[in-house]
Design brief:
CATH architecture of the largest domain: 3-Layer(aba) Sandwich
Shape: globular
Number of helices: 17
Largest sheet: 9 strands, mixed
Strand order of the largest sheet: 10-9-6-13-14-15-16-17-18
Radius of gyration: 26 Å
Length: about 500
C-alpha cells in the first residue's frame, strides 16, 4: 500500500501539480474516530465530484467530542483511512477547525455529509465558516446523500469508555432532554448575576529536572527549568462562571501590600467585578508546586500563606459587603479554603441569605484537623471529596452513601456531591432521597487541582435553573474532566466544548 499520509506543505505542492493538469481536487474533513460504513460511503461518493480525494483529520489534542475521545489516535485513524481505495491523500490537521487548511490547500470541492445540511444545530458556526473558506478560494461546497451513521453513538454503545450505570444515566437524560433542550438550559445562564465569595489562590508550578542525589549530602537535587502561574481558588471559579453568565462579582482577599493585584486583574474576564479586602500581616496566597518536567508529577509543595482569621475591623467590612452584595445577585457560590477569610459570622450570614447558595469547603494540608464546614446551614448545593466527608464526620469505614445522608440531614443540604477520584462522583438529593452516579470520564488525569472548582461552577448553574440532578451531575463531571486535562486552572471550562461533549456522549 502506497504512502498516502503527507504534511500539508508537501500536499499543497502535489495539489498544485494535479490542478495544473486540469484535474479536480475534492476535500473531506473530519475526526473519523472509529471508521465505519457511513464514512466509507461518504468518501466514495465524495470522490465522484473530482479526480483526487484529499482527507484531512483532526489531530488528537483538538478533538472536543467528550472525555476519552478520540478513541483512536490520529496516526491510527490516518492509517485506517489509507486502506480505502477512494482516498488518495491524507493530512493530519493541527488546528481546532478546518477553515485554515481549506484555504491552504485550495480544493475545487469541499464535501460534507447529509447530516450537515441543516446548520441550526451547529453551535460553533464551523460549517458556515467552512463554506466561507471554500468560496474564498474559488471552490464549492457539496453535500453527499449517503446514509448517516455516528462514530460517537457506536463508541458510546460498544466501547468500554463508560460504566453500565453511566450508560443508563445517558438513556434517562436522553428521554428527558434533546440537545436543543440542554442548549436552552445553558442559554439561561447568561442572565445570572453571581456572587463568588472566597480566597484567591495563585498556583505556581515550577518545572524541574531531576539531577539525582547530591554528592555532598543525602539530598535529592533538581534543576529549576521554568515556571507558570495560574489563578486558582475563588478566582478560578469566577473565570469558569464568566464564560456562561452575565456578571460575576468576586469578594475575596489579597495581601496587605496589594502584591499580585495586577496579575489578578489581568487574568479576570471583563464581566468579573473584583471586591477585595487587604488582609493585615498576610501575603496574597501563593501555592508553589515543584513538578517533574517529564512526568508532571508533583515533588514538593510550598505555601506562602497566613491562616490567621481576619481582624475584627476587616470582618465588619466583610459582613457589610456580603449584606449589600447578596441583594444585588441571584446566587452565591462560596469557596471556603480555610485560610482565615470566612469567619463563623460570615458563614452564618451567607446561610441565612435566602438566596441559592453553593459551597466548596475544602480540607487541605494547611488546615486538616481544624477546618469544618459546620458553620454553614441550609445550603442548596455542596461539593466535597470522599476524604473530606470522612474527616468531617470522623468516619472512614461507613459507605459513602450513608455518610452523605448523614451530612445532608445534619446541615440541611438539598444537593450534596461527593467526588471519588477515578471512581467518579455521587450526588444525593435530600428532597427526593435519591442518589445519582457519574463516571470520572477521564483515565489519564494530568492534574486534579481545580477539578472541584469546575464541577462546583457548572452544577450550581444547572441546579439554579431547576435542571434534573442527573443532567447537572453529568455536566459538572464533564467540566471536571476538562479541568483534569491541564495543570491547575490553566484553562477555563469552555461553553462550546461542553455542549459538543454533551452532544456526542448523548448520541
Amino acid at each position: 500500500m502506497k504512502n498516502k499520509i503527507f504534511t500539508k506543505e508537501d500536499l499543497k505542492k502535489k495539489i498544485y501539480l494535479i490542478k495544473k493538469k486540469g484535474k479536480k481536487v475534492v476535500h473531506c474533513h473530519g475526526t473519523f474516530d472509529l471508521l465505519h460504513l457511513g464514512h466509507i460511503k461518504h468518501l466514495s461518493n465524495a470522490k465522484k465530484y473530482g479526480d483526487i480525494l484529499v482527507v484531512t483529520i483532526t489531530a488528537d489534542k483538538y478533538i472536543n467530542k467528550g472525555p476519552g475521545r478520540p478513541y483512536f489516535k490520529h496516526k491510527q485513524r490516518a492509517e485506517a483511512l489509507s486502506s480505502l481505495e477512494s482516498v488518495d491523500y491524507i493530512v493530519i490537521n493541527h488546528d481546532f477547525t478546518s477553515t485554515k487548511i481549506i484555504k491552504f490547500l485550495c480544493p475545487d470541492f469541499y464535501c460534507k455529509g447529509p447530516d450537515y445540511i441543516d446548520q441550526k444545530s451547529d453551535v460553533t458556526n464551523e460549517i458556515k465558516n467552512e463554506i466561507k473558506a471554500i468560496k474564498s478560494v474559488g471552490g464549492k461546497v457539496v453535500f453527499t446523500k449517503d446514509d448517516t451513521y455516528s462514530s460517537s453513538s457506536l463508541i458510546n454503545q460498544f466501547s468500554d469508555l463508560y460504566s453500565k450505570k453511566t450508560l443508563e444515566t445517558f438513556k434517562k437524560i436522553k428521554k428527558k432532554y434533546n440537545l436543543s433542550d440542554i442548549k436552552q438550559v445553558i442559554e439561561k445562564f447568561k442572565n445570572f448575576k453571581i456572587l463568588v465569595i472566597g480566597e484567591i489562590i495563585i498556583d505556581e508550578y515550577i518545572f524541574c529536572e531531576s539531577l539525582g542525589k547530591s554528592g555532598k549530602e543525602p539530598v535529592l537535587t533538581f534543576k529549576n527549568l521554568e515556571s507558570e502561574r495560574y489563578l486558582g481558588g475563588s478566582a478560578a471559579i469566577s473565570r469558569h462562571l464568566a464564560g456562561f453568565c452575565k456578571q460575576v462579582t468576586l469578594l475575596s482577599m489579597i495581601g496587605e501590600k496589594s502584591e499580585n493585584l495586577r496579575e489578578i486583574q489581568k487574568g479576570m474576564p471583563s464581566n468579573v467585578n473584583l471586591k477585595l479586602i487587604k488582609k493585615k500581616n498576610s501575603p496574597t496566597i501563593i501555592k508553589k508546586r515543584y513538578v517533574d518536567k517529564i512526568s508532571l508529577s508533583k515533588i514538593l509543595g510550598v505555601y506562602s500563606i497566613n491562616d490567621d482569621l481576619i481582624s475584627t475591623n476587616q470582618e465588619q467590612d466583610l459582613l457589610f459587603k456580603i449584606k449589600n452584595l447578596i441583594k444585588e445577585n441571584d446566587m452565591i457560590i462560596v469557596a471556603d479554603y480555610g485560610h482565615g477569610f470566612l469567619t463563623k459570622e460570615a458563614a452564618n450570614l451567607i446561610s441565612k441569605s435566602k438566596k441559592f447558595v453553593a459551597l466548596n469547603a475544602q480540607i487541605n494540608s494547611a488546615n486538616i484537623g481544624y477546618k469544618t464546614m459546620k458553620n454553614y446551614r441550609d445550603l442548596d448545593f455542596v461539593v466535597i471529596n470522599q476524604r473530606e466527608i470522612q474527616h468531617e464526620l470522623r468516619d472512614k469505614h461507613s459507605k459513602v452513601e450513608i455518610l452523605m445522608k448523614k451530612l445532608a440531614n445534619e446541615l440541611k443540604i438539598k444537593n450534596l456531591v461527593v467526588t471519588r477520584g477515578v471512581d467518579g462522583a455521587i450526588l444525593y438529593n435530600s428532597i427526593n432521597k435519591k442518589f445519582y452516579y457519574s463516571d470520572a470520564f477521564t483515565k489519564n488525569t494530568i492534574d486534579k487541582i481545580g477539578a472541584g472548582d469546575a464541577m462546583l461552577s457548572l452544577i450550581s448553574m444547572f441546579l439554579k435553573t431547576n435542571s434534573s440532578n442527573d443532567l447537572a451531575l453529568l455536566a459538572g463531571s464533564l467540566a471536571a474532566s476538562q479541568s483534569t486535562q491541564t495543570l491547575a486552572n490553566k484553562k477555563v471550562v469552555n461553553k462550546i466544548d461542553l455542549i459538543k461533549s454533551l452532544e456526542h456522549i448523548l448520541k
